Amino acid sequence: MAELKGKVALVTGAGRGIGFAIADTMAREGADVVIFDLCPEEAGLAAAEQIAQAHGVKAAFYRCDVSSFDTVQETVKAVIKEFGGVDILVNNAGITRDKVLLAMSEQDWDMVLDINLKSMFNTIKACYRNFMKKKSGKIINISSVSGLMGNAAQANYTSAKAGVIGLTKTVARELASRGVNCNAIAPGTIRTPMTENMDQGALQALLSTVPMGKIGEPSDIAECAVFLASDKAKYITGEVIRVDGGIAM
Ligand code: NAP
User: Fold this and answer.
1) Domain 8-242 superfamily per CATH
2) Ligand 1 centre and the CA of 133: distance in Å?
C-alpha cells in the first residue's frame, strides 16, 4: 500500500518494456517518476502522461542517451532541479547485438558495453552526491541471467551484464554506510519488444529450458524492483535477485 509515497524514481529505458512496467508500478506505489529514454519525444511524453493519469503522480520524460557521460550529468542536474532530488535510481536501459564472437564487430562490442554498462557508471556518478546528501537511496541495476551463465552469441551482452553485477556489489560497499542500498535483478526471458524481435525458434528453444515452462512478464520484474525500493528491503544490499522461472538456479 503506497510503499513509495513521497519518493522520486528515475528509471532509464522506461519508454516501453520492463522499464515502463517498473516506472508504472513504482507510480502505483505513490512515487513520482522520471523516464529517461531515447524513444521519440512524442512516445516518451505519452508514456509519462499515461503513468501520471493512471496513478495521480508527477511523471516526466527526458530524452537522454544514457551512454553519453556529459548528457547524463546535465540531464540528472535538470531532474534534481525539477524534482528536488532522486530517491530511487533504476538502471534498466539495455540493448542486444547478438553474433558469435568471430562475427562480432568492434562497434557491436562497444555499443552494447556503452549502453548496458557504462550507462550505469554515468547515472550512478550523476546521482552519487545527491544520495550522499540524503543519506538514503535505492539503486537497482537490471542485469540478466546471461550475465550469470554466459550465452553463445552474446559475448558483448553477457560481459556487460556480468559487469553490472560487479558494479552493483562495489557501489553497495561504497554507499552502505551512507544508507544507500544497491542491488541487481537478473531477469530470465521476459515478454517485451526485446524478445519479440528475437528469432522465434530460438525463443521457443530457450523457453524449453525454463523449469517453470513459460516466459516471464514485465510485471514480474517490476514487483521485484518495487520490493527492493521499499523499506521492506532495507537490510538487503549487494544482492542479485534472479527473476527467471528457475532457469539459472
Ligand atoms: P526493450 O523493450 O528493448 O526496452 C529497452 C528500452 O531502453 C527502450 O525503450 C530503449 O529505447 C531504451 N534505450 C536503449 N538504448 C538507450 C539509450 N542509449 N539511452 C536511453 N534509453 C535507451 O528491452 P526490455 O526487454 O524491456 O529490457 C530492459 C532491460 O532488461 C535491459 O537492460 C535488458 O538487457 C534487460 N533484460 C531483458 C530481458 C528480456 O527477456 N526482455 C532478459 C534479461 C534482461 P528505444 O525506444 O530508443 O530503443
Assistant:
1) NAD(P)-binding Rossmann-like Domain (3.40.50.720)
2) 30
